Amino acid sequence: MAVIGSGPAGFYTAYKVMSSIENAIIDMYECMPVPFGLVRFGVAPDHPEVKNCQDRFEEVASSPRFNFIGNVAVGKDLPLANLRPHYNAIVFAYGATKDRKLGISGEDNLKGIYSARDFVGWYNGLPEHEALAPDLESGEEAVIIGQGNVALDVARTLLSDVNSLRKTDMTDYALDSLSKSRVKRLRVVGRRGPMQASFTIKEVRELLNLPSVSFEPIDPALFPPNAAKLPRTPKRLTQLLAKGSSTPASQARKSWSLDFLLSPRSFNASSATPSNLSSLTFLKNKVNGPDVFDSWATVSPTTSEVLYPTSLAFRSIGYKSEAINGMKDLGIDFDECRGIIPNDLHGRITSLSEDGTGIPGLYCSGWVKRGPAGVIANTMEDAFDTAESIAKDWENKEPFMSGTNGWDALQEDAAARHLKPVSWENWKKIDVAEKGRGKAKGKEREKFTSIPDMLEMLD
Ligand code: FAD
Q1: ipTM of the prediction
Q2: Half-sphere exposure of 263 toward its Cβ, with a 13 Å CA cutoff?
Q3: What is the distance in A from the centroid of ligand 1 to the CA of 95?
Q4: Which among 186, 196, 171 is positioned nearest to 216, based on CA atoms?
Q5: 147 is in an annotated binding site
Q6: How much is the pTM?
Q7: pLDDT tens, residue by residue, 157-173
């Protein structure tokens, strides 16, 4: 079986299939020379415990029935159609490689606007964002559009004392840039109210507990009057937000706020330097009844506007999956609207046209299966679900594809294309080198942030 992508979805699917189907052999393709997807390039550096799932992935990779083929982007370096004749099954687990856009004026042409995905990739050493160089020095104000947990990761990174991050695996260039940051006042803006917000309690609590950082009180009218009677989770969140931060504004080094019921309308240019962002206009929203405190309540725009002056803004409204080249030739119609591969909800890829029947041997897992939301635990459950479908189909002798030689049969093709596949042993060399570089600086790891640097140390 080929698995495309080495994030949690790829690894958990591989793990479960290998333990359910005796003698199953897995070839895992990964476009980066290094494994683990968003566990390496997304999860915040100050949350190292989240990365413990890598221990399980290491166990999977230690099996003789597992091959890691890094530095090979399927659909780009190696055509999908060339994989097909050599496997019984292909699992698409390639996550979400793009981010969603707002589609408002100024978004694409003003300096000072960054996508949270790019910023997160930058501080985590994702090679494509190494050169981002976000301008954190021009102003004291910053605005994050979006109130999910990724937005709160970005907020924590901007508000934390940089010295508290120095022992993490955050890249040196990001630490250097953050140490020069002038950002003092941060707004995290969402289009709904606090009772409909998508962040979680743990992440808000962390921000409220940051030393020397104050939190601007939220308008009490946004909370239900009888909060004590709410179910456990909204009750705890309401109490937490109402309590706020223990640092009074007068003693704070930096401050932040959660600004609710605002939809971005335009990014505005500076009159002095028209290529630079100088402010953001938002349209005020109201929550629709009957119960304005219901977590599912929708919002609609009013005609009032608010203007926030800022030269720095982050767009954090979600990631997005895309089709990879050659899917159509395999009969897969990527669902552009939902940003997922059409499937039977259990990972069997189905055709969008005709009667939506399954396509033998083709499966999907993780964010590309159900959309880019959910923590690693959700992705694991989802991957196990796909693996169970595969095991069941195998046991029931459902039709699969007929190839069985896998990577052995593809190596000549890869060599003719001058590809430089990275094996698990080679990744371990990169791993050891990164940990060594980190140790010299008192850090957990100093990542290589360019693909040539990763490969150079393997020569
Ligand atoms: P990914 O992790 O994105 O893995 C996909 C892999 O496929 C990547 O390695 C990619 O390089 C590879 N790939 C892409 N295209 C190709 C191709 N053509 N050929 C070969 N390989 C390809 N969850 C938590 O539990 N705790 C957290 O603290 C947390 N923090 C997060 C912070 C951020 C910023 C983000 C975005 C997510 C966070 N999550 C967190 C969620 C978690 O990261 C996801 O649930 C999980 O990573 C999704 O797994 P996946 O395998 O579907 O995708």
Answers
A1: 0.99
A2: 17
A3: 6
A4: 186
A5: yes
A6: 0.96
A7: 999 999 999 999 999 99
